[in-house]
Structures are given as structure tokens and as C-alpha cells.
Design a protein that fits this description.
There is one protein chain. The protein has about 250 residues and is an alpha+beta fold. It has eight helices and ten strands. The protein folds into two domains: about 70 residues, no CATH class; about 160 residues, Aminopeptidase (3-Layer(aba) Sandwich). The two termini are about 35 Å apart. The structure holds coenzyme A. The site of coenzyme A has 20 residues, from strand 8, helix 7 and helix 8.
């Protein structure tokens, strides 16, 4: 088969203890299905991800006919340089500062609660503790160097929120990774302050447009990005197809 149609995902596979692959194209053709099936069998794949183009009816039909299940509708926003941002309301009791290794336990506790609207919770084959562990690992790795910048908002001696940012070399765009605000501090512009701080960080590094993705059903996140000047950029439909009975599980490290 054309090796280029699918790829094995070593990180996801190792993390969830299942063999996970993804279809690389966002559009499918009839002739792709057999090749994808052969590749998955040859690679002993348990789960295949597909990020489909919602604007292509043939792809949606083929995905659904061949056993892919919808797990998320992704919206990607773009912040074009030069768009005015509203000034955040001043909240003197909130301190923004770079995350430190000592913040990791508190950040992990927060990240374990915040991202339950994502595809790893929507797809009930992933046990909730596996989804929780994914976001805890994500924030921990971000502080340990996976992200180029992690900023926390501190209020009343606690971490009220955080944001992670990636500025890869080359053509890959500047991206916001994770943003989260503890439920007690929601609606007080903590999210807006974090996003604006990271936009300043990108701006100081002459980054081009900044991208961020969220779920179509995540209205608070969309309103947050819109209030900071982001514009809709692209959409995608996440599908998962399970080919075996494998149950994802996360080994304690
Ligand atoms: C999304 C999130 C970070 C927002 O944080 P926040 O500190 O409450 O947001 P802010 O107070 O800064 O609000 C910023 C804007 O979003 C809007 N907003 C925030 N929460 C909202 C809600 N529940 N419903 C509608 N709009 C909302 C605000 O009205 C504000 O817009 P405005 O300037 O027009 O008033 C927070 O809800 C959260 O942590 N959610 C769980 C994690 C998550 O989904 N993260 C994003 C994943 S991609």
C-alpha cells in the first residue's frame, strides 16, 4: 500500500498501551479504504484516528460507512498579527508568571479536571482515567520543556489558570496548546489575561499568525479566543475507528 496514506503514532501507542495510527489525509477516496484496511491489518492497529474535512461529503460518507465514529468537531482559530485586542480588566490580585517545576503537582491536579469535553473523554473506549492522565502528562511535559512557554495565573496563593505556547522553528505555525482556568476563577478574565500575555510573548518573538484549536461545542473557549481577536480559520471532524477489543490503559510512571 502507499505508505504515505497512514502513519503509526508511537507516542499515543506507548501512552495508551494500544497500537494507534492515523490517516494522514483529510479527504478520503473509495480506493483508499482497502489500502487503509490492509495497512491497519499489517501494522496490527487497534485504533485509527482520522481528522476529516467536514466540507467534503464523500469523505464523511466513506468514513461513516467504514466504521469511523465521530468523536469531536474541531475548530481552529487564527490570531492575525495587527488585530486590536481588547484590554483585559485589571485584576491586581492575579499574578502572571512563568511556570516553575514546583508548580507541576498543582498543574497536574488542575489539568486532570479541565479537559473532559475532548475526544479522549467523548470516545468511551478511553477510560476517563486515561484521558485525565493524558492531560496531566501534557501539562507536566510542557513545563519540562515540551512547550516553549508555560505561563500560570496565581491568585490567593493558588494556581488559578495556565496556558502553554509552542513556537516551532520552520514553517509550523505558532500555537497555543492548553489553556485552563480553575472553575472558582472562571468569568473573571483570567483566561483573557493568559491569552493576551501569550500573544505578547509571541509578538516579542516576531511570530506570525498564532493558531489555537478547540471543540465546536466549547463555547466558553470560543468566546475567550474571539474576545482576544482570534478569527475562525479551519474546521475538522475527528473520527476514531476501533479495530480490536484493546482497552487503552496508562501505566503508572
Ligand atoms: C475556556 C476558559 C479557559 C475560559 O476562562 P475564563 O477565565 O473563565 O474566561 P474569561 O473570564 O477570560 O472570559 C473571556 C471571554 O470569554 C467569555 N466566556 C467565558 N466563559 C464563558 C461562558 N461559560 N459562556 C460564554 N462566554 C464565556 C467571556 O464572556 C469573555 O468574553 P467577553 O469579553 O465578551 O466578556 C475556561 O472556561 C476553562 O478553563 N474551561 C475548561 C478548559 C477548556 O475548555 N480550555 C480550552 C480548551 S481548548
Amino acid at each position: 500500500m502507499s505508505a504515505s496514506l497512514c502513519e503509526f503514532l508511537p507516542w499515543d501507542s506507548g501512552f495508551f498501551s494500544c497500537r494507534i495510527g492515523r490517516v494522514k489525509a483529510q479527504r478520503l477516496y473509495e480506493s483508499d479504504l482497502e489500502q487503509i484496511g490492509d495497512w491497519a491489518q499489517q501494522e496490527r492497529i487497534d485504533c485509527l484516528y482520522l481528522l476529516a474535512d467536514p466540507g467534503d461529503p464523500r469523505t464523511i460518507r466513506l468514513a461513516e460507512q467504514s466504521g469511523f465514529r465521530l468523536v469531536d468537531v474541531r475548530l481552529t482559530y487564527q490570531h492575525p498579527p495587527g488585530v486590536d485586542r481588547p484590554a483585559a480588566r485589571d485584576l491586581p490580585s492575579v499574578l502572571l508568571r512563568p511556570a516553575q517545576p514546583g508548580d507541576i503537582p498543582e498543574l497536574e491536579a488542575l489539568a486532570g479536571q479541565l479537559f473532559t469535553g475532548t475526544r479522549f473523554f467523548f470516545d468511551d473506549r478511553f477510560p476517563p482515567e486515561a484521558g485525565k492522565a493524558l492531560y496531566q502528562t501534557w501539562i507536566r511535559s510542557s513545563v519540562e520543556g515540551y512547550a516553549d512557554c508555560v505561563t500560570v495565573a496565581e491568585a490567593e496563593g493558588r494556581i488559578a489558570g495556565f496556558i502553554t505556547a509552542h513556537l516551532p522553528a520552520g514553517d509550523a505555525g505558532a500555537r497555543i496548546g492548553l489553556v485552563g482556568v480553575a472553575s472558582f476563577y472562571r468569568g473573571a478574565k483570567v483566561g483573557q489575561r493568559l491569552v493576551n500575555a501569550v500573544l505578547e510573548w509571541f509578538h516579542a518573538r516576531a511570530a506570525g499568525p498564532v493558531f489555537v484549536s478547540t471543540q465546536a461545542h466549547n463555547i466558553p473557549a470560543q468566546r475567550l479566543y474571539q474576545s482576544c481577536g482570534f478569527l475562525a480559520h479551519s474546521t475538522g471532524i475527528w473520527y476514531h475507528k476501533w479495530l480490536t477489543d484493546c482497552i487503552p490503559q496508562v501505566r503508572k510512571s
